[in-house]
Predict the structure.
Amino acid sequence: MCSPSESAICRTLVVTAELLAVRELAVFLREVCAEAQVGDCEVLDLELAMVEAATNVVEHGYRDREGGAVALQVCVRPGGVTLTLTDTGKPAPEGVFSNRTALDMTALSGRGISIIQACVDGVEYTSRAGCNRLTLHKTLSG
Amino acid sequence: MGTPEDIQVLAVQHRRLDAAAAPEFKQEVEVFAADQPTRVLLDLSSVEFVDSTGLGVLVSLLKKMGANGRIAVFGAAPSVHRLFQITRLESLFRLCTTRAEAENVLSE
């Protein structure tokens, strides 16, 4: 919950962990960013990063599990946007969001993490008591 | 003037080339690639968004076309341009502003 003393817009949407629902998260993200007047370039990067992250949760975190949920919180504060994705699926492998590995350009898959890292300025991941939380920070210019 | 006969056009109709659309798009690409095209005009003017899964399908098309295969893209939305830039695939897929420019690139 954001401090009422900060000038911020914070909204949360929870969806079923399905690939089509990732599109709902994207629409929601764009709506919050539009409300907060986030610049187009930043919105592009945020949507790319969020879609990659949410898709990973659906495809890997909830693989072989039905009925899971993904929550996306979008917080826009002066100077930055924070996206927080929360799920209760299988945790991501340790260090996956902090490692940077070169990718074969002709690879058919495996670009998701590097895209996330390229699109945002900070990535934090925690997994505690069955709850996984990925936080993405994007600095806003101007 | 029509497209030169040795250039095949793939006009993608999916609004979002994401993980949800990828299985169907992959099948469409496999059907398209069965003709063994070597020069492809990729029309992305109906596509608003591509993620890494959709991009993987496009890369698979390029691989199916072999070492001499070339793809020129036109109609890419800003987010698609950004994705190609981040992944450095601009060197494999020639991004063009117009269809005419893309045809010229493939005719070089």
Summary: Chain A touches chain B through 27 residues (CB under 8 Å). The longest helix of chain A spans residues 40-61. The longest strand of chain A covers residues 69-77. Strands of chain A lie at 9-16, 69-77, 80-87, 122-128, 131-139.
